[in-house]
Structure formats: C-alpha cells, structure tokens
Amino acid sequence: MKSTDQFRQLFICAASSLLIVACGGSGGGGGDGGPSNGSGISFTGNTAPAQIDESNAQSIGETSGEAVRQAAGTSSLPTAVEVQEVDLEPVHRTVIESAQLSTLPSGVDVSSGVCTGGGSANVTFSGPGQNGSGRLDSTIVYDNCVFNSGNTTFTIDGTVITEDSDVSNPSSAFSISYQNVTVSGLGFGSQTLNYTFSCTNASVSSTCTQSSTFVSSSGGTHQISDYSISGNTSSGFNGTASFSHATYGTVSINVSGLTYGSCGTSPDGGTIAFTSSNGSSGSITFSSNCTVSGTWNTGSASGSF
C-alpha cells in the first residue's frame, strides 16, 4: 500500500514548480481579469502536434497568450509565476490522508479525522480499498473543512479526485485532481485550485507533470501544462510551457515579456514563439492597443498576419 509519507515526499519534490502563486489579492471567481476555469479539469481537445499555418497561427498565438494568464491568475492554479511562495503541501497531505482513512466501499464520513476544526469531508471510492490491490479511485468532497494541526490551520472546500492504478504498488501511476477547490488560511488569502498533478511512477517525481484546463474568451476549452514561467503582469512573464488548443493541437511555447492589464484576458505586450513537433512554427506579438501581429511557417511556406 502506498504511504502518506511517500506522497508527501513526492509533492515536496514537485514544490518548485507547483507551489507558487501570484501575489496580491485573493482568489475566487474571475475578478482578476484572467480567463475563467473550465467546469472540471479534464481536457478532451486535440493533443496531436499542431499543423501551424496561415489559417490557425493567429488563433493559436492569441489563445496561448490567455493560457499564460490562466497559469498566472490568482484565481486559477498555483504555478511558478510570481514571487510569493506558498506551501500547499499540507493540503496535498490532507487529501491523501482523507482517502486513506476510508476503508469501506462508499459514502465514508472522514470528518472527525480530517476536519478537526469543523466542516465535513466525505469519501466515495471504487476499487479494492486501501488494503487490497488493483485500481483505486477516490472522490473526496470537502465542505468548509477546517484542518488544525500544530501551527497549521486552513480551510478547504470543493472536490478532489485521486486515481491510483494499483494501490499495492508504490511505483504505479497516480494522479490527484483539484476541481474548483478553494483553500484559505495558509497566508495567501483564498485560492481556487483547478489543476491535475499526475505521475506515471508515483515513486519518481521526475515522471510527474501538472496541467490546467481553461475556457478562453472565444469559448473553447484548452490546456496549459509543463509550465516553467516567472515574472508578473506588469514587468512581464518569461518562460516555457506546453499548450494544447482545443481544435488545432499541441505546441511548445516560449514566452517573452508578456504583460497584462489593458486588454482583458489577452496580453498587452510581449511575444510568444510557438513550435510543433512536426516542424511547423509561428510567433505572435501583442501590442498595448490590443492588436496583434505575427508569423507562421509550415516548413514549406511562410507568411505573416
């Protein structure tokens, strides 16, 4: 059976990319001007390499600009996007402990063991239970659950789903998905978490990735993942990520000096270069008057917009 200590160490190892949030203000809603989160965290769009050409380069570029804002938004997910470090390891640990307290087939109230300061936590799962072997899926619903332990107190509200491909195998695949989960009391106001942390081998942190889906201003549901981005909305964001457009597919993006504030969910400065594994590529430059310009290259033809 996988241990709480194992998962705790796994999340600590991933802290450098996961446990940083944007500074200033509390989360919730979409009031910070960032794009809205999707209704859940699963992405069902196109994950094939994008074929970048004159028909889609501008759309890929503009939507990837919103994707970076999604990763940076105080109402979205914790990522390496600004300077305020936040330790969410207690939240991850509480989720794992909540699942491990459950040993019955369904409808288990684990409030007394988790919500020591009030509220409730209920677990339903399918599979063999923590003491068996095979796939185990848990759904944990927190209702203003207040966790008190020593000097740590926080409130968690929302749904978390854990999936373990073999609960008896420490090296099996594992994922934890936060679906509109609000966390408050850890020294950074209120944050709404909408992201998935998954590992192909739960014993090796290098096999783990994080991702978030979001709904763009045009209405499509897209995904940003494997992000390493630093900066802020005024001085500009810089870094790299993988971006999957719902219709056109996946590209690697290189972000340079992206600023936000004057153009709603879109950048008002900076550039993004995007490339596909099939060799096609493009770039987009955002202007303060909320217009864009850019280039595309299919490998055999090129142009601008």
Structural features, described:
By secondary structure, this protein is an alpha+beta fold. 15% of the residues lie in helices and 41% in strands. The strands form 2 sheets. The protein has a 15-stranded antiparallel beta sheet that branches. It is globular, with a radius of gyration of 20 Å.
| Main sheet overview | 15 strands, antiparallel
Low-confidence stretches: 3-41, 73-87
Tally of DSSP β-strands? 17
pLDDT average, as an integer? Answer: 75
Which bin fits the share of residues in helices? 10-25%
Percent in strands: 35-45%
Basic shape: globular
- Helix and strand sequence: HHEEHEHEHEEEEEEEEEEEEE
Rg: 20 Å
Terminal residue distance = 55 Å
The secondary structure category is: alpha+beta
Q: How many helices in DSSP terms?
A: 5
Tags for this entry?
single chain, 15-stranded antiparallel sheet, 17 strands, globular, disordered N terminus
Topology (elements, then pairings):
Blueprint: H1 4-13, H2 15-18, E1 20-21, E2 36-37, H3 57-72, E3 84-85, H4 89-100, E4 108-109, H5 111-114, E5 120-126, E6 136-149, E7 152-164, E8 174-184, E9 190-199, E10 208-215, E11 221-232, E12 236-245, E13 249-259, E14 269-275, E15 281-286, E16 292-297, E17 302-304
Antiparallel strand pairs: 1-3, 2-10, 4-5, 5-6, 6-7, 7-8, 8-9, 9-10, 10-11, 11-12, 12-13, 13-14, 14-15, 15-16, 16-17
Helix pairs in contact: 1-4
